[in-house]
Write a structure and sequence with these properties.
flat, about 180 residues, 9 helices
Length: about 180
């Protein structure tokens, strides 16, 4: 029952951190983590699908250039970009899902990148919800590690993009 409630709540903008805290407070760290993680990814999928079917045509019609720009950006290396967005949660989970769904990016890599990217922060908040006292140095270390991972992923995307541009600019050989 909590799984369903949290799925709907995260689909409607409940922060995933609150889902992890509350589920772990009620069911302990391990079970709470699993419930919150699965509910969060379910909520992510629900919002993505709703946005795709309810808003994509309207968004494309009202903001054609911005919609196309976002679609082009997120449709390449979707898994990695979703992973980065989720590891470094700098914005609203809900709005990210709405934008992703409304711009018709690929569903599977987006959801898989989101799922894996949710895990680190969900672990931290599940531990806190389960009563574990996280030392400030541990929190800072986790943040630094996650930032480092995200930075490496960003660098790999930049290198991949530069290589792609270089290949597209290369002139074909004449025979």
């Amino acid at each position: 029952m909590l799984y369903l409630a949290l799925s709907v709540a995260t689909a409607l903008a409940l922060p995933r951190q609150i889902a992890a805290l509350s589920a772990s407070a009620l069911f302990g760290v391990t079970q709470g983590f699993l419930i919150a993680l699965l509910a969060t990814i379910t909520g992510c999928m629900m919002t993505f699908i709703a946005a795709k079917y309810l808003f994509s045509a309207k968004v494309a019609q009202k903001f054609p250039e911005k919609s196309q720009t976002i679609h082009q950006f997120l449709s390449e290396s979707t898994f990695t970009k979703a992973l980065i967005i989720r590891i470094l949660p700098l914005g609203s989970n809900f709005l990210t899902n709405v934008i992703a769904g409304a711009t018709n990016i690929p569903f599977k890599p987006y959801v898989l990148g989101s799922f894996i990217g949710f895990i680190p922060q969900m672990v931290i908040f599940s531990l806190a919800g389960g009563g574990a006292k996280l030392a400030e140095s541990h929190e800072q270390g986790a943040l630094l590690a996650l930032s480092g991972i995200a930075l490496l992923l960003i660098i790999s995307l930049v290198i991949k993009n530069k290589a792609k541009k270089k290949l597209s600019k290369a002139k074909p050989l004449s025979i």
